[in-house]
Amino acid sequence: MPYDFKTAFLDALLLPFKDRPVRLVDLGSGTSKDFPDLLRRYPNVAYTGVEPSESARATAARLLHGIPQVVLESAWGESLAARYRGTFDITLSLSVLEHVKYLDSFLDTSVAITAPGGLVVHRYDLGHALYPVSWYERALVWGSRTFPWGIPASIFTTHPEVMHVTRTLAASGLHDLSVGYAQMYGLKQAMNHVAQIDSALATRIVQLDTELADALVSRLSAREVARLFPTVTVRGVKG
To answer: Residue 160's closest CA among 104, 97, 107?
Structure first.
């Protein structure tokens, strides 16, 4: 797996937990493509991937074959509260919130299934709304925001408001909430070209992205920050 923004993010997320068993759930796990090498480096992590798409789960099963402590669930994330309440040390979603039709229920569930003292992390992308690659994507985002009841959950795509996400998580019992921004648009495009071929340069791009976000976020309006760094990470600890 090449070094890129997501692998760097996941490494930083798991490093503090490397010396103890960790139960991690990946909500909307898709093909779990960012996890095979990571789980081999962190054998202390018991991984549960939750994904409604049968074809995506089949790919995930192939990619994760032979790795212990892996469970793949056929479910929507917001359906898990009854079975997994208070179970996981880390509840994670990656590039998922922008595709969640029943957002409040999904956020509430992410807190409910986390053990007391556990970490909830949602990292999501605004690029579909801010930088659509086609008229179809532009229309899909517009439709999902304008008449969400008419868009199937399987293709739903929108622009979650950071304030709404943080307020909902706080109301569900999360505290010590923080918001981070990453993946400067131009640097993301550069990473797409170099991640597979030059891990040293990919590492420098991640470092530069972090430095720029640290230097600029507090000086810009919320709208400017979102357009410049369209990847948002909201995290907190369950009380």
So the answer is: 97
DSSP 8-state class, residue 64: T
Cα–Cα distance, 74 to 77 (Å, whole number) = 9
In the prediction, which pLDDT does 3 show?
82
Please give the residue range of the domain that contains residue 106: 5-129+158-238
Mean pLDDT within 181-203: 92
Q: What is the pTM of this model?
A: 0.95
pLDDT of residue 1: 65
Which CATH number fits the domain that encloses residue 173? 3.40.50.150
Map residue 85 onto helix, strand or coil. Answer: coil
DSSP annotation string for 21-50:
-EEEEEET-TT-TTSHHHHHH-TTEEEEEE
